[in-house]
Specification:
With about 290 residues, the protein is α+β, with helices and mostly antiparallel strands. The chain contains 12 helices and 6 strands. It has a 4-stranded antiparallel beta sheet. Strands 5-6 form a two-stranded parallel sheet. Helix 10 crosses helix 11.
Length: about 290
């Protein structure tokens, strides 16, 4: 847009000369974007010329606006004056010219180095779920953000972290141990990332059944009777109590947490299972 703004400065310089017979330097003509609350695209500030021209800034701005709009093939379509501010509305051909200039400018918009590093993390999937269109959206947004920041002069570091550890990962591992019967990905079978995702879903299904059965027992009844909010229904109470149940009462929850502790203690059997199932997911991600 630099050349287009230079054009505007030249038009206003010519208008001042035509209207007032005063020769001014183009560098003295200050143009900025019009504030959102006013009509217009660009604004010229007439105040600095009031002393030289011995005239009110609003009068100067109006006469310049009228002169600019009358010039041959003027890029200005309309104008308005707010005190000493001349707000200019541009014709469509002004933007066409600007886009043409941008198209001819190699690496348009690149700024000098700011000497600052920026870390952009994307897409960072987890190994319990297959990659899908949402991840592609995340990748494109992250990549675009990193390119924009680089153009703005930042030293950009792009990274992603595959979330392949923690209690959620132990859920799919435990479910495969308990219900998988040795099922593996392979020719004619399920893709590895889909297979691991299947057992993460299986864990949640088994946990939901366990939780529903527990809610009919005496422990759940006693906990509900001791609730602080006497107005809450059993359905709402136990919906909110789910995480506490997992941590305090669930057999499946205990087994998943024990597996996580074993993983943290570098138990080789658990680490071997973790590596195997992660590799299934990585292979599935790669195929995708």
């Amino acid at each position: 847009m630099a050349e287009s703004l230079l054009l505007l400065q030249e038009l206003i310089r010519n208008a001042i000369e035509d209207e007032f017979g005063v020769d001014v330097d183009r560098s003295d003509i200050s143009i900025g974007e019009t504030k959102k609350e006013y009509d217009g695209h660009y604004t010229w500030v007439a105040f600095p010329f009031a002393k030289v021209l011995k005239m009110a800034p609003a009068v100067i701005a109006r006469r310049v606006g009228e002169s600019v709009i009358k010039q041959d093939r003027s890029p200005v379509r309309n104008f308005n004056v707010i005190q000493g501010f001349l707000n200019l509305e541009m014709h469509d051909h002004f933007w066409t010219l600007s886009l043409g200039q941008i198209n001819k400018t190699n690496l348009y918009g690149t700024q000098t180095s700011k000497g600052q590093k920026v870390l952009v993390e994307f897409a960072s999937p987890n190994t319990n779920k297959p990659i899908h269109l949402g991840h592609i959206r995340n990748i494109l947004l992250g990549w675009s953000t990193s390119k924009i920041l680089a153009y703005c002069g930042y030293d950009v570091i792009r990274t992603q972290i595959i979330n392949d550890r923690g209690i959620a990962i132990c859920k799919s591992m435990l479910a495969w141990q308990k219900y998988g019967k040795g099922e593996r990905p392979g020719p004619g079978g399920m893709k590895g990332d889909h297979l691991v995702g299947k057992y993460y879903i299986r864990f949640e299904k088994e946990f939901a059944q366990e939780y529903a059965a527990w809610q009919t027992g005496p422990d759940a009844e006693q906990i509900y009777l001791e609730r602080k909010d006497r107005s809450v229904s059993p359905e709402a109470f136990f919906k909110a109590y789910k995480n506490e149940y997992f941590n305090e009462h669930s057999q499946l929850g205990k087994e998943a947490k024990d597996m996580l502790l074993s993983w943290e203690a570098k138990d080789e059997a658990i680490l071997s299972l973790w590596r195997m199932m992660n590799q299934w997911v990585y292979d599935g991600f790669e195929a995708t």
